TrEMBL record:
GO terms for cellular component: endoplasmic reticulum; endoplasmic reticulum membrane. Its EC number is 1.14.11.29. It catalyses: L-prolyl-[hypoxia-inducible factor alpha subunit] + 2-oxoglutarate + O2 = trans-4-hydroxy-L-prolyl-[hypoxia-inducible factor alpha subunit] + succinate + CO2. Keywords: Calcium, Dioxygenase, Endoplasmic reticulum, Glycoprotein, Iron, Membrane, Metal-binding, Oxidoreductase, Repeat, Signal-anchor, Transmembrane, Transmembrane helix, Vitamin C. It is a single-pass type II membrane protein. Residues 293-443 form the Fe2OG dioxygenase domain. This is Transmembrane prolyl 4-hydroxylase. It comes from Lepisosteus oculatus. One of its GO terms (biological process) is regulation of erythrocyte differentiation. Pfam families: 2OG-FeII_Oxy_3 (PF13640), EF-hand_5 (PF13202). Its main location: endoplasmic reticulum. The keyword Ligase does not apply. It comes from the Eukaryota. The chain crosses the membrane at residues 35-59.
Length: 487
């Protein structure tokens, strides 16, 4: 042993045998002392760890001690959560699923005989994917039911001269100009015009078509691509749309190019639709009453060439904002009305042969700025042209569900502000047909209004006694058609 060491050291300096040996001895004594210290430190750390562990075990499972429910229980897989029935007053607290990090997979119990995997796709918006949420047969049943009911065009051209929000608010051209001029430089850039006008009347304006319109209307005599206040004032309020209309608008130039229908999911509905509603309740972990009082299932068909440019499913929350679903309880009239879709659950009913992805152009972007959506003539909202330039795309696979929160939390367990990152759209279908369905969970950001609405509904249900209970819970068979076009 010693010989070997000497041979080893000898290689370093064979001409100095004596001091080499002494150095070797000194080194080894230093080594053994530090080795002892290290061992002692480890030993003490080990003892402290053992004591800490014993204390932990004692306090977490000691007899008579009520264990902390959050600390001791393994979070996944969740046991099949009981579908409880909250009172008509509603809950004060909306559970929100944690994303943890992108790519995180959690197991969820949605049906008795299967454990689903739920993968986090993004945190902004909080977006999840659940493969195999629906079986192939369930997808086929939903498509058949939609076909039986009949689908209608998702977007019809708004009649000309429809009421304008600007007119309703009695804004002058100067005021409108100032609203459009986001960077306040006294001129309107193409982006500024497009940011506000590209979805007006359901016609989608692109940088190219806007230039064409400027030329056709001689709106920009100095030809610099910018509109001054003087140039802007010479245009009528819907000059762009009128110009396009006169030239003829193709379906591909609309905001969305699809057909859809609505399927009632309340009591007495087809068992697949009822099962779907229950599964969505388990998935979102929301009180069942909120899911039951939400919109019916929307089924959408995109033919080849169909698309839906990127949009938010619901609107921003201002003090004046009222929701469609709680309007009666709101007792107010305001132009700021929106659908208050807290969660969107999107089901892919078939696997699309080409295209048709769901795009989230700004998912998990570091920052979000509306004006940055159009840069160098690339409009990130344009799902016919620029789907590949956004941050995230989901391929449509039969049976998969994705869902996301359109609103942030208010920090107190209720609905907060619109999550601007929830911007999404349907990329153009290049081959085959695309069938999807949407479930939206409607919750009023004003908690008291939601509670009053739920109280009104439960009173009505109480008055309408069980024997002559009407199957048509919703008197208007198609209450939400066309609603999407103005969002
Ligand atoms: C509606 O609002 C008016 C005025 O604010 C109030 O007098 C009335 O009682 C309200 N009605 C309901 C049903 O809340
Ligand atoms: C996405 O984030 C980057 C980096 O912060 C930013 O430069 C860009 O403008 C953002 N995109 C949008 C559409 O806001």
């Amino acid at each position: 042993m010693k010989d070997e060491q000497q041979v080893g050291l000898g290689r370093l300096g064979p001409s100095l045998p004596v001091p080499r040996d002494r150095i070797h001895l000194q080194k080894s004594s230093v080594c053994s002392r530090s080795y002892f210290v290290v061992v002692m430190v480890f030993f003490h750390v080990y003892i402290i760890n053992v004591i800490a562990l014993l204390l932990y075990v004692h306090y977490n499972s000691g007899p008579g001690e009520p264990p902390d429910p959050a600390a001791g229980r393994a979070p996944e897989p969740d046991p099949l959560p009981p579908v409880s029935h909250a009172g008509p007053g509603g809950p004060l607290y909306l559970p929100r699923i944690e994303g943890i990090r992108v790519g995180h997979v959690q197991k969820v119990a949605l049906v008795p005989d299967k454990v689903h995997e739920m993968k986090t796709l993004s945190l902004k918006p909080l977006l999840f994917e659940v493969p195999g949420f629906l079986t192939e047969e369930e997808c086929q049943v939903i498509v058949q039911l939609a076909r039986l009911k009949g689908l209608t065009e998702s977007q019809v051209m708004a009649p000309e001269g429809g009421e304008e929000l600007a007119e309703e608010l009695e804004l002058s051209p100067e005021e409108i100009f100032n609203l459009l001029d986001l960077n306040q430089d006294g001129q309107l850039q193409l982006q500024e015009v497009l940011t506000h006008s590209r979805v007006r009347d359901g016609i989608w304006l692109t940088p190219d078509s806007l230039r064409e319109i400027y030329a056709g209307l001689k709106a920009d005599p100095d030809g610099n691509g910018l509109l001054s206040l003087e140039e802007f004032k010479r245009l009528s309020s819907n000059a762009f749309q009128r110009f396009l209309r006169q030239r003829g608008v193709q379906r591909s130039q609309l905001v969305r190019n699809s057909k859809h229908t609505w399927l009632y999911q309340g009591e007495g509905a087809h068992r697949v639709l009822r099962a779907l509603r229950e599964r969505v309740t388990r998935l979102t972990r929301l009180p069942p009453v909120l899911v039951e009082l939400s919109e019916p299932l929307q089924v959408v068909r995109y033919e080849r060439g169909g698309h839906y440019h990127a949009h938010h499913d619901s609107g921003p929350v201002y003090p004046e904002t009222v929701c469609h679903h709680t309007k009666l309880a709101a007792n107010a009239s305001t132009p700021f009305e929106t659908s208050c879709r807290y969660i969107t659950v999107l089901f892919y009913l078939n696997t699309v042969d080409g295209g048709g992805e769901t795009a989230f152009p700004v998912a998990d972007n570091r920052t979000y700025e509306e004006l940055s959506l159009i840069q160098n003539d690339i409009d990130l909202l344009d799902t016919r042209k620029n789907c590949d330039k956004g941050n995230l795309r989901v391929r449509p696979t039969q049976g998969t569900a994705i869902f996301w929160y359109n609103y942030l939390s208010d920090g107190k367990g209720w609905v907060g502000e619109l999550d601007e990152y929830s911007l999404h759209g349907g990329c153009v279908v290049t081959q085959g047909t695309k069938w999807v369905a949407n479930n939206w969970i409607n919750i009023d950001p004003d908690y008291r209004r939601q509670a009053r609405f739920q109280q009104m509904v439960s009173q009505q249900e109480g008055e309408r006694h069980a024997p002559n209970r009407d199957r048509n819970h919703n008197p208007d068979p198609d209450p939400h058609s066309g609603m999407h076009s103005d969002l």
